[in-house]
């Protein structure tokens, strides 16, 4: 029996997010919430940034991966786990596996950024390089299901244990900051968004998602009412290129107020602003939330806005703005 | 009577740092203490980074400047204040003045980094450009003392109110992290170091300072037993180019265990490591503390080390490592 199909027949409950938080608390960083008077002035809002870029492995993904592993039985732990990931989920699973003594194998598309591949390898997971795209992804999963029937596939987002884990970031945020008026998170596969949406719903808070125009499949899915495929890999937001899943979409359809689209230039400008004003390293996917607040001011002006900064894994030798080399004297 | 010479006849007491903390608490950010498993592994120590780069105005300097202004009488506040600063102290004073409704004038050497000039101007202080170097600095102060006898000169480090304010960062750090074995801060004029040294001394903790080899006047001063002049402006650590003062040196001589010198290359490597692993923007001056832990491992191996990250004000279009431009597709 495959672990992926054990859960997921009933609607995820908010209590699952509370339970996930209790389980993962010894392993996660209780990430700080930062503010910037400059960004508040610029947006006319009060912005509270939940800094998951300061989470273990540099992304919120560690919450879900760690929770998924903690839900395994002793026998499942002994048999090991595998996944396919071009980035932060792979590193998160590798790190959680290392902490919990569970063998992790990650299939990595050849097209993944070198810095993200290195981030997976550092936690001593076994990595296997595959072709980019869904066919190769599905082929390797099918192969492993046959070869290692006792090992568990830990999907990057479309599973209730993952969704519940990701929701713990929003849970900490609303506990830390009183009287928020709304939340906003990026959306890729929808794990972070759906977990956050359940928390927002429990507090009757509106929740928005930010998505690059060039990969606006979540926006299109919300329009059409069924999951639309990702329209192409042409975004700098390498963490947001995946489709929604049925588990994440079910929650998003029910609880998310709107998906706000932004351009690539807006993402880069917001990323640079966050580096400059918040003094933290954020990856492009994370900058989408500030980009959306700047692009749709009417939704946020005068409001107390909780923004989830999803990750900070970037290659520091390659940046989306021109940089002069300051030689030492 | 000039404000600068009111205090400073008796030794600064630890209670002054506690009082400073109470006074400035409504205005400062209680900055987070961050850790990195990677940096711990690399150094063989447990490193606790007190992130003053996330302080208001992006540097610990706000603590001292805010405290100095809060110590002014009503008449002194009304008469305004002035200073000379090429960077973080000027911005900190401008910001504190804006918050407290005190008129601030800052003389800025023409050679100051553009990003730091902009950081002063944003808080609507009056700025006056002067020639770089001590003679021009002393000339403008003498001129203002004559022209505006009621206005107060707020020095960047050599004053007990400033030292007490800067010491509050270490105070928060030792309250947040139990059982530290030692502290380390950068040293420029010595405000942060002397305030931190008083806190360290009260807990019987050894304290070290990190200083670039190319501007090792604090090291030389500790060797000779009297204040030695800064040996030249040839360091990437633009925050650490000043001489010690008599107030800061008196404390440093008494309580600082050693000054650890590092090379420019070591500073840049440590800066990049901090960006990559801690996911925060630190300026070169701040990176000196990690550089020192890496260079002098025998002092720190197996220890719980508190490091003060002093600031994060850098020009993001000019970095000390080669960066390729990632064009949008």
In words, what does this structure look like?
2 copies of one chain form a homodimer. The model of chain A is unreliable at 1-8 (pLDDT under 50). In chain A, 45% of the residues lie in helices and 16% in strands. By secondary structure, chain A is of the alpha/beta class. In chain A, β4, α6 and β5 form a beta-alpha-beta unit. The longest helix of chain A has 17 residues, at 160-176. In chain A, α1 (14-24) crosses α8 and α3 packs across α5 (88-100). Chain A folds into 2 domains: 11-59 and 159-309, Rossmann fold (3-Layer(aba) Sandwich); 62-153, Rossmann fold (3-Layer(aba) Sandwich), CATH 3.40.50.1100. Chain A is globular and about 55 Å long. In chain A, the strands form 2 sheets. Chain A has a 6-stranded mixed β-sheet, sandwiched between helices. At the A-B interface, α12, β11 and β12 of A face α12, β11 and β12 of B.
**Low-confidence spans of chain A: pLDDT under 50, at least 5 residues?**
1-8
**Biggest interface in this structure?**
A-B, 38 and 38 residues
- Tell me the total number of β-strands of chain A: 12
Strand line-up in the sheet with most strands of chain A? 1-2-10-7-8-9
Which fold name corresponds to the CATH topology of the largest domain in chain A? Rossmann fold
Order of helices and strands of chain A: HEHEHHEHEHEHEHEHEHHEHHHEEE
**Count of runs of 4 or more consecutive helical residues of chain A:** 14
Counting structural domains of chain A, the number is 2
State the helical fraction of chain A. Answer: 40-55%
Profile the largest sheet of chain A: 6 strands, mixed
> Mean pLDDT across all residues of chain A, rounded?
94
Whole-angstrom Rg of chain A: 19 Å
End-to-end separation of chain A in angstroms reads: 64 Å
* Residue fraction in strands of chain A: 15-25%
Please report the first level of CATH classification, the CATH class of the largest domain in chain A: Alpha Beta
The structural class of chain A is alpha/beta
Oligomer: homodimer
Shape of chain A: globular
GO molecular function, one term (chains A, B): L-serine ammonia-lyase activity
Protein name (chains A, B): Serine/threonine dehydratase
Family (chains A, B): Belongs to the serine/threonine dehydratase family.
Cofactor (chains A, B): pyridoxal 5'-phosphate; Mn(2+); Ca(2+); Mg(2+)
